[in-house]
Model the fold of this input.
Amino acid sequence: MASADLLADPPPSLYEARKGVYPKKVDGPFRRFKWAIMGITLAIYYGTPWIRWDRGPYAPDQAVLVDLANRRFYMFQIEIWPHEFYYVAGLLIMAGIGLFVVTSAVGRAWCGYACPQTVWTDLFQHVDRLVDGDRNAQIRLANGPWTAEKIAKRTVKYAIYLTIAFWTGGAWIMYFADAPTLTREFWSGDAALVAYGTVAVLTATTFILGGFLREQVCIYMCPWPRIQTAMMDEKSLLVTYKDWRGEPRGSTKKAQAHPGAFGDCIDCNQCVAVCPTGIDIREGPQIGCITCALCIDACDGVMAQVGRPRGLIDYCTLDDAAAEKAGGVAQPIRKTLLRPRTLIYLGIWGAIGAAMLFSLGQRTRLDLAVQHERSPLYVQLSDGMIRNNYTLKLRNMETRPRRVEVSVTGLDGAQLWTEAGSREEAAQRVEISLPPDSVTPVKLFIAAPGKGPARQDFTIATRGLDGKERGDSDTIQFDRPETAE
Amino acid sequence: MVDSDNFPAAAGGKRIDEATGTSTVGHEWDGIEELDTPMPRWWLWTFYATIVWALIYVILYPAWPLVNSATTGVLGWTSRGELEKEMRADAVRRAPIVNAIAATPIADLTAKPELMRAAVQGGSAAFKVHCVQCHGAGGAGVAKLYPSLTDDDWLWGGDLTSIAYTVEHGIRNPDHKVTRTSLMPAFGRDGILDAKAIADVVSHIRVISGQEKPSASATRGATIFADNCAVCHGAKGEGDRKVGAPKLTDAIWLYGGDRASLTATIDAPRNGVMPRWGERLDPVTIKMLTAYVYSLGGGEKSALAPAPMPAASEAKGPGANGQR
Done:
């Protein structure tokens, strides 16, 4: 049976070649808005590593720096240590909820305007137009034979692609080292191998994802459209073809011949021609639509030419669509944007931000972690006292050297000394110098009278001796032999 | 040839979905159907690329398991070879600090905190290999067997030079001329003192160490102590590091300070032995071990007893600073 069935019809291909997308040039408010967003995001991406920020002699002067080697993250006046990574986690959560806010209010605006895949694809499509001409010229060239002109144009185009891709990869590594130094090292061949590797990988991915895969990334690879599909509801703004106004479609000629028989859509196909993902918005909401709104610009332009009101394709919620279809009016845009769901997301987003700012303002920059050495738990000293050993980790998170005091409370008759000192100089407190922006391990010896409980809690505290006292303390145990009581 | 009209039914209910124009896979669960959307072609290319990559990898790197080994690959790469490379690189990285430690006299090590820190770290690693078997993790010692290295009581001296000498030459190595050595007589076993005399000496020792109140027995013991023990342990029981004789007046007892333990020790002393590491370990490792033991908490800034090294001056080869 199987063989007969297989012979019956040529089975459809399991694989589908990419259909070329050659979006036409368009102008309008949304296109200009996209230009602005592209300019701002690219400027931020390429420019940020070059902003300088003075932090004194003990810290780098790059405003935004992810210093992996020394495990520090600098962002303007904020310095994050590895143990404070939860701030970064908080930022990521804020970014996630930020996407919720945006999706709830304006649908897939992230996809349409700010996503790097969209921005770079847009950039590469401008390169296409620059080298090959607009839509029709591009299609002619793509379908035409490999003439000298085509080879020349392709060479120039791919060279520009590669240049953009290379600068994209090159800008990325600047976030991880001092940008001017790294640039010098990069071109003189002295940079780390990982820098060249990263640039190579990012050049390749930018070249392939931006130059060739483009909308395939959004449709096949990216999880975000699927998540957004689940997050949208009937009150989210969508780019909508108002079929109740446009259908049935007909050219202006036909409409003149049969007044009243045709809708506003003149079936000029401009909305399809300008679409960067190659879809037909008139088929309704679909996963391929990134809501870049270029079809709105295109359609509004055509409607102006034929003297019909704008907005045949427009941002519209499913609720508004139903209302308009029934002859009602859409609710005001302010109400659509400021609905409770959006405001709740915004509230959560703002609360996390405020909490993080508050805790940033409250965090100590002198930290203490105490570890009780357990082999041996205690040491019998010759004069009958008992000594315990501790390893202190003193974190000086300020970019200046500091002098701090370590003292003990709750342990009567305690004598403290460090590796550098000796028992003869032991006292109730020790002073320690900390280098700037560093963790200093200190071996602390504490001797106490042999008579006492076998396990005793006490507190080790540290405070600054340079006017800024605020420090940290840790409660820890002092152990004695059971028989000493 | 089968009539093409029968194809959908024969293929298990496949049909063309209206909205997308795509065929379904033919299954249906409670009205839910699955579209047979074609894969993008580039996905197929990516799949072929991974196959090509795998072929190249198999040729270049160890891949096929054989009975006792695996195919070696054209590049000859092995993880053991990687390890050797890393170890060599690390040896190169450590060379300057190792050379600096080698060139620094042991007594000057504390004056150079950087070197001292490196030496303590290196010593900590070496200690775990060579020393923990007796002296315990962290040098805590073993009660009534091996001395703690963390306290402030030293049999042979707790300054860097003395510790280095002990580590290098060992204790009571009969076949080594410059080893640290001494021998406490077996007062009971060899019949030097009778049981009553030993009991009196034990009383005396427990009085001078503050563990018992003075008694008639202790007074008798004081005389016996002066005649038999003071020559090494000192008239007041203060000990003598020249001969590794422990102080008897403090709170630290290597073999126990209670009556039974003291009696056993005087009856038949242990005379503990430690190997000489000078012939097994290189001078830098010995310096590192010294620095580590010194750092455990009991290190002494300078030698309390002058020249606590028996026969060190008459031995020509090994120097006092632990270098050979």
Observations:
- The radius of gyration of chain B is 38 Å.
- The CA atoms of residues 179 and 195 of chain B lie 33 Å apart.
